[in-house]
Amino acid sequence: MAQKRDYYEVLGVSKGAGEDEIKKAYRKLARQYHPDVNKAADAEEKFKEVKEAYDVLGDDQKRAMYDQYGHVDPNQGMGGGGFSGDFGGFGDIFDMFFGGGGRTRDPNAPQRGSDLQYTMQIEFKEAVFGKETDITIPRTEQCDTCFGTGAKPGTKPDTCSACHGSGQQEVVQNTAFGRMVNRRTCTVCQGKGKIIREKCGTCHGSGTVKKQRVIHVRIPAGVDDGAQLRMSGEGESGLRGGPNGDLYIVIRVKPHEFFERDGDDIYCEVPLTFAQAALGDEIEIPTLTEKVKLKIPAGTQTGTFFRLRGKGVPRLRGHGQGDQHVKVVIVTPTKLNDEQKELLRQFAASGGEHTNGGHEESFFDRMKRAFRGD
Ligand SMILES: [Zn+2]
Ligand SMILES: [Zn+2]
């Protein structure tokens, strides 16, 4: 296969030819080589060549790219690249890749700022009762000197001539499946669509500056670990008049040495002596706000929960508070003196523990049955 001819040469126009001149040349050649009217052996091939040249030179963007890069693959090594005889095919493939490309971002359009995330550690009680605090967030803002253009005040950025301001370039490749057109970020302007000749002294041409921003945060009472607070418009600033992003504050609650939390309820464990549990007592329980008295009835078993109504966490949305649940754990004494040991022996004997009758034995009988499985 011959080397691909220059598109201008194909149409017989100069490199500086205007739109009209190109169109006129194309029409003339298309009529001349159209396979319906021209029965020469090479007419179809010529017609294709003309059509292809016009598809590129007749389109501002494609022409600019062609001017800069020429044919991407000048050898057309695939022998036409599996290109079918359908004359509309070439244009269709182009349209497929050029048209309606929703993913492509216009570099001149307003752009929303990015969202930011900030993780904030707070104390257990701060989560319960809420907190107000100031945080410092580094964020990107539009440069006030150049209003985001990046150009020195009094100057204007030039539209990039390689991409005509679109920020995108198209790369044509011949593949086994035909001609493929890929978009890529313009390498001349790095996708900005503009070339800044004289840069703004404040932002050095970026149009944005990093600023430390102090933001007042009000953490609502009842917030839980992992909660996210959204602060609308406190993210990165938008560009070219686009809206700011949002700031998401992720709450991390430090564990408490005594309390645990499950939703709006608070859990804690208090130790009881065997005597307290057996005889009953009144004990003091710390809550989130104060100490309250809790009556332990005689004969309380280890692991029993008592509920302190309304002593939990304020409900985040709505009224009222959760409860505090107190689990009592009976602590077996480990350091008994001789007198205590003797008293316990007497206690056991008076309850009949060492005999084979009564309550204790039936408990062991039940256990044996359970292990036998009947
Ligand atoms: Zn460009
Ligand atoms: Zn600036």
TrEMBL record:
Q: Where in the cell is it found?
A: Cytoplasm
Q: Which residues form the CR-type domain?
A: 130-212
Cross-referenced CDD domains: DnaJ, DnaJ_C, DnaJ_zf
Q: What is its main location?
A: cytoplasm
Supply the alphabetized keyword list.
Chaperone, Cytoplasm, DNA replication, Metal-binding, Repeat, Stress response, Zinc, Zinc-finger
- Binding of Zn(2+) 1, residues: 143, 146, 200, 203
Name by which UniProt lists this protein: Chaperone protein DnaJ
User: What does the UniProt entry state concerning the protein's domains?
Assistant: The J domain is necessary and sufficient to stimulate DnaK ATPase activity. Zinc center 1 plays an important role in the autonomous, DnaK-independent chaperone activity of DnaJ. Zinc center 2 is essential for interaction with DnaK and for DnaJ activity.
CR-type zinc finger span: 130-212
Q: What does the entry list as the binding residues for Zn(2+) 2? A: 160, 163, 186, 189
Q: Per its UniProt entry, which superkingdom is the organism in? A: Bacteria
J domain: which residues?
Answer: 6-70
Q: Which GO terms describe its biological process?
A: DNA replication; protein refolding; response to heat
